[in-house]
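ARCHIVE CARD
Drawer: 12
Card no.: 0347
Subject: one protein chain, sequence and derived structure
Cross-reference: see card 0346
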Amino acid sequence: MTFNPNELILEKIRSVEEYDLATNALVGRYTQIESPSLKTAATGTAVTDAMGAEITTFYNAQTGTFDFTNSLFSMDLAASQFGAVKEISSTNARPVSETITINGDHQAILKYVPVGTAGAEITTVKVINDDNTFGASYELSTAGNGSVAEGTFVLDAAAKTLSFPNDVSGRVFVRYDAVTGDTVKITKTSDSIPEVRSLLVHALFHDPCNTNLVYAGVISIPRAQIDPSAVELTLTSEGKHAASYKLQKSYCDENAKLFDIIVSNDSAA
């Protein structure tokens, strides 16, 4: 029997995959898909008679969009939206902020080894008062003899130690840069533009007359550029990660396709 489905039940979009156009390398895969939507549009040009009555309308400039929301924040999706490369490193430094209690030796012990200009990795710290307000600021000592003058501190970066005058106690707030382990970084610049990619949108369908029959489907989009005009990252645990792609045909191909919808009777595809 020829496989020729008509009406189907769409169970879910299983994943969205993003590929580099030049190399076909996978650059992003998103698996927690909510509210996926595929839309097309066209520009209509009406043909009218001498009285202004419409005779017909010609449609051209066909376009499309693909939108979805990922339930989880995705570093790969954010990199695509920002036109950035996800940088994976074990040596990159990151900003660290610590609130440290000064010990009985009038020292504050950092969690990490600070990095930066040698001898001046940390240049200023602030005391935190008992009511959690900021108090006096202390500057890096320039004496060079290890002495701790009033209003200064001595830094031993290798030992992760800040030494204060004997009359300083309580807590201090310290901001510095440190290598804290493996990091992943994406950088948004003001002139970065998302690249054109290809997309594969994997779906699961069911036969409406026998829901035990499961069909694999895929929407293949040969050219799509993520829309950077209104990217919003909701920075809460309940926040979702939304994305919108503009479907593009090749400018030099007059009849280039925007997408294919393919359904297979092989549910394992």
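Annotation on reverse: The first helix runs from residue 75 to 82. The two ends are 20 Å apart (CA to CA).
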